[in-house]
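Objective 1b: paired records.
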Amino acid sequence: MTFLFCSFPLLYVAMGLAFITGSFPGPDAQGERVPEAFGWLFVAIPGAMVLAGWSLALAMLVAGRRLSRMESRTYCFVVAAIGCMFMPVGTALGVLTIIVLMRPSVQHAFGSRSDSS
């Protein structure tokens, strides 16, 4: 779900590319072009947001895999904390993961080797 929702800014990237190529007419009746720098802003900022979101989605996938193997408790904890930024599902998932990871029985199950990786 994170991967899907973080892909929405690609619409703005497409709009920015349309500004750069001149596919969109300008705001006035003469059809003056939008400045190219404005189009690059529409490409750069949402593009960075998409890359950051996809990176988080990949990190969550890796954390889920490590949770199932009881490895890298610290990594899973950090990814759960970062995932709390994505409301409402990410917040619920992140908070519940943190609560479970804080249990002494879970800490014992992960063992001392999990904090080293």
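Objective 1b, second protein:
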Amino acid sequence: MTEATTYDADFHAWALRNAELLREGRLDELDVEHLAEELELMGASERRELLNRLQVLLLHLLKHQHQPERRGKSWRLTINHQRTSIERLLEQSPSLRRLLDSANLDKVYRKAVRDAVIETDLDAELFPGACPYDLTQILDDDWLPGD
């Protein structure tokens, strides 16, 4: 590999070069260690994105439920956008669905409650200790709490 295509010098050129080597079957020339690292990072990135989107979705569902007087198009658009993004992530990487178990849902829910308390000035005690919504409701395009 030339200096211009090393991992540290030019990531983009390195990625293109390694893709070319893979396609040509020149496996002995691959930068295996960095390829493995990048594949792991890609997986971690998708996991973070799914859980972050779920947290934003839960935050807006909580606001929708607990502040009916403040409901507006912006919250509904955010809810729709997050649901669509989660749906796309799960279509592209179905194995991510395993992250939506009750343990992860409760962890993400607690973070959404923390954010809801900060954003709304409502008391934390107003919110249930565990997620009051099931995954089917959370991802259902036609469901909103309190409706």
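The longest helix spans residues 32-66. DSSP finds five helices and no strands in the chain.
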